[in-house]
Amino acid sequence: MKKALALLFVFQVIFMSLMAQTLPPVDKSPMDMSYYPANYPVLKIQDKATEPLAARVVYSRPQKAGRTIYGGLVKYGEIWRLGANEATEIEFFKPVKIDGKKVAKGRYTLYAIAYESSWTFILNKDTDTWGAFKYDQKKDVLRVSVPVEKTTEPVESMSMGFEKTNTGFKLVIAWDTVKAGLPISL
Prior knowledge:
13% helix, eight-stranded antiparallel sheet, globular, mainly beta, two-stranded antiparallel ribbon
């Protein structure tokens, strides 16, 4: 009986110490992930995936929250982590082509430089970085400039997703009243 009481006491102390720990608050820019093909993990679990996984992007979704985004929060002509918190990363599960340049299978940090009428997307070899504070241009794999489009409605939470194209797919980024797409060929 003494052993049982002692064990109960130990469990109670452990439980109380766990209850005393506080969890961090919910991030205002939650991390999200998109796949090509869309919903790939669910399709694979359901045995409905008709094509293999080609790409995945992991990013944090900042909110507009009444702020001026382009030309304000995101400065024109300056390197941007393409989201919030950690730098956005894109992973290719097979070799692809971007702007006619071969990109090896692997994981890359994805940055952007926003301008009023175009964005320059940058694939960089340095992964697991926070923001763009330690961005090193010498580690760039490629840069490609794409036009931006105006959206019909403002987008409150920055969003990324893949769209199928005739030659492969496109990573589309939309936030505020702007969207841009990075074309990727298979």
